[in-house]
Design a protein that fits this description.
99 residues; two-stranded parallel sheet; 3 helices
């Protein structure tokens, strides 16, 4: 969801999610990271995407029996430097991942 898109469980309840698929929801607004949102996602078998986006404090909660980890990359690295520079961000450190 876009960073300015606030969570609305009322609107989410109107969406139809066919049962033969698995879904991941990526929240980029603080309103996605509260107990009501986690409960809604869990009750509807919707995975909360784990990511690290500047300005968003994603606590990496588990809401399903699978995890969707989105590796976005450091967008401050110039395109011609991709693959030459590696930085370990806060999420990587928090999860114990090595870069």
């Amino acid at each position: 969801m876009p960073q300015l898109c606030q969570n609305s469980t009322a609107k989410m309840r109107q969406l139809i999610f066919p049962e033969n698929y698995r879904y991941a929801v990526e929240g980029r607004h603080a309103s996605w990271f509260d107990d009501d949102s986690y409960q809604f996602l869990s009750e509807n078998d919707l995975c909360l995407v784990w990511n690290e986006v500047e300005g968003v404090a994603n606590p990496a909660k588990i809401t399903t029996d699978f995890v969707y980890l989105r590796l976005i990359g450091d967008r401050s690295i110039p395109e011609n430097e991709f693959g030459k520079i590696q930085r370990q961000n806060g999420f990587s450190k928090k999860m114990g991942l090595k870069t």
